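Record type: ASSEMBLY
Status: queued
Input:
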Amino acid sequence: MTETLKLSMEGIVKRFGGVVALDHVDFELRRGEVMALVGDNGAGKSTLIKTLAGAHMADEGVMRLDGEPVRFTSPQDAWSRGVATIFQELALAGKMTIADNIFLGREITRSVAGIPFLDRRAMHRRSRELLEELDVHVPDIHTWVEYLSGGQRQGVAIARALNIDADVIVMDEPTAALAVAEVRKVLEFIKTLRRQGKSVILISHNVQDVFEVSDRITVLRRGQRIGLLETQKTTPEEVVGYITGAAETKRRPVAAG
Amino acid sequence: MWTTLTSEASDARNRASVISRPIRIGREVLLLIALGVLVAIFASQSEFFLSERNLTTILRNSVDLAVVCAGMTIVIILGGIDVSVGGIVAVSAVLIGRAYQYDMPDMVVVPIGLAAGAALGAMNGAIIAKSRVPPIVATLGTMYIFIAVLFLVIGGVWISGLPNTLSFLVLGELFGLPSGLFVIGAIYGLSWLMLRRTPWGQRVVAIGCDEHAARLVGIRVDRTKIQAYALLGLFAGLAAVLYVARLRNVEVNIGTNIALEAIAATILGGANIRGGIGSLLGTLMGVLFIKMTQNGLVLIGVSSLWETVVIGGLLIVVLVLDALETRRTS
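Status: finished
Output:
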């Protein structure tokens, strides 16, 4: 079992002053798996993801990547180890082109007289490849990112992660502010990533989306993991019950959606 | 890869993107038209305006402002601003003047001027990056310090009678063209390469677009900011060298108008005060517009006060158009 895990977190504790945001949380992710991470506001999803992404340091607990203990000191540190977190704000520069964004901070250069000049041709070629692999449709690689739709922007952000050969991709509420057709597209991106053997963590409020793409579901409640469910063997009602606390399940049977 | 789009929403956005480019190029075209109108007005009022001698004079008067503006464009694209550049030019010029008075050769004097400018610029950058004070406030503060330094050193008396060994940089000719043209060409060529052809330029634009995003992708924001302000300072130091080379003295009111003219030229040239966007070519045309207005109004005998009215008015029109454009797209 252990050898198939891409990533695991054991007994993670994170405190902010007197508040225990994460209380001995365990988390695991297999290779080529889409793991949904759900929970109500304040359940600890963001804290867990920020710990995983290197934005927070855990107070206790161990994190393993491919079985080896790791400790990320910054998001860049996590990225360099192949764990790419795409935060809700996407970290895209609106007034730069798609290709420039994919390579932002990691440009391909060609040295002329010792000075590193941008190799735009190589960056464009690679960008086209990445977008094609992911089946992102954009009008032109030279378009400013601020003129793209929400789904296309998600595509660019994912392409950036693929460019550094990330094999764990964490997506924080990727479908939150999107139109229906765009949501479909983003869910397709996630399925494409799984086909490529990538491991995906999907944080979402939308139980419907979770059921469409995930293999397993981790439920957090009040800083604890209270459920690890196989998507095939559970129902939206059960998941909502875990999220809201079993007592409330009967009163709110179809809060999903 | 021109592929079809998936949804109507993105279709609409694409139409917007197709329009966006002509608008950006449009600024330079607009400025060209404005320059044409300006030239037509002045030429019809004064036959001297289009003479070779007057055009050379306009160019010579533009060199120091143009050099400063290349740096200002980069700083504004970064999302910053520097209202202290006049102070940097002044302090550098005073040091250059004093160094000449101690009989130091150009080989020593010029590096002193450039290094002083770069150091003061780097200081601005460090204050802005580390304290997170808004750049306009931080540089307003340093401007007062620089002006105080100027008066402490110069003591209210002009430094004059400086050597003319570098005058050829502004007043000379090369291949039958005014040498200032080559100075401007070199500085703008270099700036353009840095801004548009190197990873450093990508970092500058990214910070100007969204500083938080730039940090998230691992860009060293503070370092890039300090470098950009230092570059502007270096150019201000060079402007001081050129100023002294041209006029061979250092006045007590040196640099008073440079900051405002530089910001005006850059904004007129298409840079967005919120960062991310700017055009070196546009800025250069903005410089030309300002300097032609100053020259032309004097030639046709209009009080030079009107010059500031024209530039200020135009600046407001441009800023309002920018604001409307931003409201429309967001």
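Annotation: Chain A touches chain B at residues 74-76, 79, 87, 89-96, 100, 103-105, 107, 109, 115-118, 128, 131-132, 137-141, 143-144, 146-149, 151-152, 160, 179, 181-182, 185 (CB under 8 Å).
Annotation: The CA atoms of residues 97 and 144 of chain A lie 4 Å apart.
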